[in-house]
Amino acid sequence: MATGEATGIPTVTVTIRKCEALQEMQACFALQKEVWNFSDADLIPVRLFVVANKIGGQVIGAFDGEELVGFALAIPGNRNGHSYLHSQMLAVRQQYRNAGLGRQLKLSQREDALARGFDLMEWTFDPLEIKNAYLNIEKLGAIARRYNVNQYGITTSPLQGGLPTDRLVAEWWLKSWRVEAVLSGAPRPEIAPQASIAVPAEIYEWKNSATTRSNAARVQQNNREQFTKAFAEGLAVLGFARDNRGQWAFLTQCVGRSRSLLTQSMSIHRI
Length: 271
Description:
The chain is of the alpha+beta class and 271 residues long. The protein has two domains: 118 residues, 3-Layer(aba) Sandwich (Aminopeptidase), CATH 3.40.630.30; 145 residues, no CATH class. Helices cover 32% and strands 27% of the residues. The protein has eight helices and ten strands. Strand 2 and strand 3 form a beta hairpin. The N terminus and C terminus are likely disordered.
């Protein structure tokens, strides 16, 4: 998911709906290039947007009048006999960010997924991206129990800062007690973290400057080791919090280990 500093245009002006026409798929492709600034080799082609729409995936757009200003792309997946949706990309035009539009797109994905019988959505996100982590864990109720090292290789997007594309896998159990509570604003049990994994508030600055990028690389390497260790011990990311110094940390806690990470066990229903 793309992030950026902007005031944000009120989302009351925006309509969210499924993309159907080829021209809308082409607009998604163009917005992807604008937001991520990938080279052509790293871009998701128009034909994948078209195919995703035809095979049970999702191409959901946010429109200000006739102008596409955001989209979410998902493709169907299956693991161990369990069908789910994998949300591959979400992008929002810069001047529309920080106004809740990303969350609205995710909620539209959830509504469509539930209507079609899915109980799980997954996506990956960069654990060094503080805004995305907060949205995914705290505002949507996703959890994370898997860490992929350099998933896409080194990409051409300046948002990655030339670092390996390490990713956490977000699991969004759409019918779980945790997700229902988060989305409704109901009280949640406090987390008793067994381990915390820090992300300095300066991480954006460090990634964006060639002179400080080595600091970001050290944080990434250290956190890679901590996540790998925590997940091997059966811990899961259940929280993302900021301390009184403005520093952020992922909070991990044991939730029980099921046979499959795609089995919605009672432990998942209760978190």
